[in-house]
Amino acid sequence: MLKGIIRGNVVSTRKQESLVGSKFMEVQIIENGNLTDKYIIAIDSVGAGIGETVLITVGSPARLALSNKCAPADAVIVGIVD
Amino acid sequence: MLKGIIRGNVVSTRKQESLVGSKFMEVQIIENGNLTDKYIIAIDSVGAGIGETVLITVGSPARLALSNKCAPADAVIVGIVD
Amino acid sequence: MLKGIIRGNVVSTRKQESLVGSKFMEVQIIENGNLTDKYIIAIDSVGAGIGETVLITVGSPARLALSNKCAPADAVIVGIVD
Amino acid sequence: MLKGIIRGNVVSTRKQESLVGSKFMEVQIIENGNLTDKYIIAIDSVGAGIGETVLITVGSPARLALSNKCAPADAVIVGIVD
Amino acid sequence: MLKGIIRGNVVSTRKQESLVGSKFMEVQIIENGNLTDKYIIAIDSVGAGIGETVLITVGSPARLALSNKCAPADAVIVGIVD
Question: How far is CA B11 from CA C11, C58, D40, in A?
């Protein structure tokens, strides 16, 4: 998993039907406690908001965190770091 | 997901039969609002065109956005950013 | 697989239900015997602790090391290096 | 998908039985029309030869382009660029 | 696939039960005939030894080269280069 801070959201009106209702967040990756210049766009699954530090699962396992397990998603926020 | 701008298309006449009809687009990746020097070739699934900012799903989940879910595709455009 | 040293743990109270009980560890990657500046967050499956050198499986195969094979996990500690 | 030019082939007599008959090609990756210093070894599925510009699918979807969909392949040439 | 030279092995007594008997090799990656500073740990499936040049399949397809196709492995040596 990756750790990062949610910096903003991405709005897409025209999108895959299976992604309708998904909340796309732009997340800045943290490594070893330091902010990096890497960013990823992840779908929220835990009610996280801008400014929160989160855990992101990437790749094929990510969509297992969504209610629709066949959605074409490659990055999902799976936890909020305390 | 990745965010990027469609810069061009790639034409391939001789290709895997399961990819016939696919529209291959070359997309320049954007991170944190800035253009990067990273490019990816993705199949369009939402009617996106050159110059549009899009969301791309990569890896194994990508093909879930195609009508043929067994196509050998590793990157698919799944949304157009507003 | 990747090799690395466990440097700390990550606590997340609000997380995906399928990840409840998972122990998230921050691991510093080792390549060719040298510490790198790459870090990954992996779920422990072998009882590893901070300071131990471990093997990590990443990507879709990672969750095969968990009791819940449908957990949205992309990195799991699968061995402790002697 | 990645775009690249086939630079050579790789011969392996002792290999996984499910890969017998596979043609391994070393491909130099092209991004935005420029040659990079990245190389990948991909199995040909479209009759491509040295010097041709090709499209490569990587990761888990790659093997969907092979007749044996259970072959342990992570990169397959799926098209020849016109 | 990646090409590389086996530089050593990694011993792990405490590991996932499904990985017992696996031979973990540290492999230095070769690109375009040149040694790189990238290393990966892969499970041998073809009887390769230290110093041999090998082909490695990474990611989800890797475990298809193992007798236990549900082992949590993300990199497997699938061929020895002639």
Answer: 48, 34, 21
